[in-house]
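HUMAN: Would you supply a protein with fold tokens?

ASSISTANT:
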Amino acid sequence: MIHHYLAARAELDAPGSPFATKVTEVRGVMLKEFASSPPTMRALWEASAVHGDKPYLVYEDEHMTYAEAHAQVRKLAAHLVANGVHPGSRVAIAMRNYPEWVVSHWAAMCVGAAVVGVNAWWTPPEIEYALNDSEPAVFIADNERLERLNHMPEQRPMHIISVRSSRVVSDNSITWNDAMTAADAGTLPAVAIDPDDDATIFYTSGTTGFPKGAQLTHRGSVNNVYNIMTMGLATNMAEQRALAAGDVAPRPTASTPTASPPAQAAFMAATPLFHVTACNCVLQGATVLGGKVVLMHKWDPGRALELIERERVTNFTGVPTMSRELLMHPDWSRRDTSTLQGMGGGGAPLQPDLVGKIADALEAGQPSTAYGMTETCGIITANSARWFLAKPASCGTIVPTLEAKLVDENGNDLAPSPTTTGVLCVRGSVVIKGYLNRPEATADAIRDGWLNTGDIA
């Protein structure tokens, strides 16, 4: 079967293909990127306007279309600019997976500001550290986060927007609803954004001390989305060709099919948006495809199954524990999950037994997994469908815009062979620019464009 997959990858990378790659000089290093991808996340967002009245965001019982989201993004973008935000500024977001998180994320990037994804689970000292480290011009937070930081507005000169709250925390604060009362100008503010400007800053957990702020660029974020699309397309192409050649047998058809296939892909973001999985892989990937993104107030497998049935979710992405909790929940057999085409995610390996359980439980879908890092804007490798079932312990093949090598404990290159093991290093356009305010940590992690993942392969 692998020859079908390799042929599909080669075809997608052929000259003239929308997924062909090229080599570009980035920060003094020649790196692979997609030749025809949009240059910035703003361009990627603007392209999604074609989806108009299609559903975009679902949060519990709230719904927002693409057109409504674009109107809110334009309003907030104008408000940010009016309050001093410009290319190079930073906008910190600290809240649950509310629709306002998504709108804030797009609005900030569209005016050239870097989104600082603040971990909503952090303690007040941890949140304060991130705000002091990133120095945002604007802080957008829900009531739960603001209650933890009563004294913070007095310490930091930043504009504050309170979400789902009437709280006015300083003279330089406003509620979200008040920020949305401005007239919609119909266009985004005109700004110049470079592909290598920071798009997001996510803080990576460390074993000691405070976490480091990883600087994910527009170029890296766009290329991650295209990596995800390419890997999915290659798998689907290989599957169809293997079926046509008689190399594999068709999967059993659903015993209880829905009345009709979903007209729109629907993605459940089960993990927090302040992590790269939910933000860069689920949210941004779904937006490019014109998909619907289903958000939850907090993780609850029973509620997730209810939303999967109601919103006809096609793709579930979470950590392995979440997939197992769904399958083991007593409501699994009572809910219509026949629209699910994929279940899996990352954050940890899917145990081989779970891979088989997902395949057995899904009537029309397949298990999937990906290995990645915040430092690569998302995924490094991916494995899904029959290939995953055949090798359930494998993290899959590497994405198009990365190259890989192994090094020993001293950083010396190792000759590749089937039996060689070493520390995995990767290089490509998706590798972060560095760690905010941490030049030594950046130099230790990235050398000549090669990111030391710290993982053994």
Observations:
- The chain has two domains: 2-36+218-456, 41-193.
- The mean pLDDT is 94.
- The CA atoms of residues 273 and 279 lie 5 Å apart.
